[in-house]
């Protein structure tokens, strides 16, 4: 990029991110910058700005200020940025990682919150914001946010979506027994009502069974008790076994509507479901952590590779070699730049041997 184009891009960044006249630097947050961009720049100006920013980011994708300016412009004029087939959600999440790595966690959080206002249904952005708040130690505020999300889903008639948010609360605060109860009530509301009706009729059922003199009823009770004893045993931390035992209990309760031994099974089923919820939350947390670590390593690998390319362009071949090796260290076996980075390292090593 020549000097004139560099100056043009810097002017664009300043126009989009600088505070209004009379306001101190840093006094204008991302939301205000986005609103100002929507008000002050028409479609033609926005299109010119977008072209300059996209061209510059193709050459320097790790430039946080230019990427931030593009996000502000994209949120203010989304129809302009769509022409370049740019995903604002993906680029916004990438910018948030870069800002956090640069020590600007507050700005990264403001960016993610602004993106959620424009796309409230983005679970990826919501998940990134939750992870950032957890890393910053804002657990109480995070739990309140997740609880609000769950309440909104309940009011919208989407109980299973609410369950997903409540499960995340348990990941951050496993002592919230009230949340576990809410999950159980939402997921098994209809079953709970049936159980309450069954308990109300318990005395009547007992009287009927006790007064029955027919031997067939006695035989049936014995057979059902044996069937209950033969249900699969489940260890407290074995989720598949817990599900198998729950299925066995549900099948017995659905098939046989009333017998004396059903009441302990009803109570056990509630306890098993509560334990299954906790184990499912642990599994989901481990998966999210694995995904987060993989994404962080990919970001580090990409950043190291970009630094290596810059070092090559500046003639610092030893430094470039170190950056490329770091990129390989953090890049996964399926990283799309892995083969190219191997080739760059081999070329640099050959050149250094020949020119020493």
Describe what you observe in this structure.
The structure is a single chain. With 356 residues, this protein is mainly α. Among the domains are: 1-86, no CATH class; 191-282, no CATH class; 292-354, Methane Monooxygenase Hydroxylase, Chain G, domain 1 (Up-down Bundle). The chain is built from 18 helices and no strands. The protein has helices at residues 3-17, 30-40, 43-59, 64-76, 78-81, 88-101, 105-118, 123-135, 139-155, 159-172, 177-187, 189-200, 202-211, 215-229, 239-255, 262-313, 317-330, 338-354.
Question: How would the blueprint of this fold be written?
Answer:
Elements: H1 3-17, H2 30-40, H3 43-59, H4 64-76, H5 78-81, H6 88-101, H7 105-118, H8 123-135, H9 139-155, H10 159-172, H11 177-187, H12 189-200, H13 202-211, H14 215-229, H15 239-255, H16 262-313, H17 317-330, H18 338-354
Helix pairs in contact: 1-3, 1-4, 2-4, 3-4, 4-6, 6-7, 7-8, 9-10, 10-11, 10-16, 11-16, 15-16, 16-17, 17-18
Brief write-up:
By secondary structure, this protein is mostly helical. The protein is 79% helix and 0% strand.
Number of DSSP strand runs: 0
Helix content: over 70%
Protein structure class: mainly alpha
Task: Count helical runs.
Answer: 18
Radius of gyration, rounded? 30 Å
Task: Let me know the average pLDDT.
Answer: 78
Spatial shape: elongated
> Which blocks of ≥5 consecutive residues have pLDDT under 50?
none
SS strand fraction? under 5%
Major sheet summary line: none
The run of helices and strands is: HHHHHHHHHHHHHHHHHH
Q: Distance between termini?
A: 32 Å
Features:
mainly alpha, Methane Monooxygenase Hydroxylase, Chain G, domain 1, 356 residues
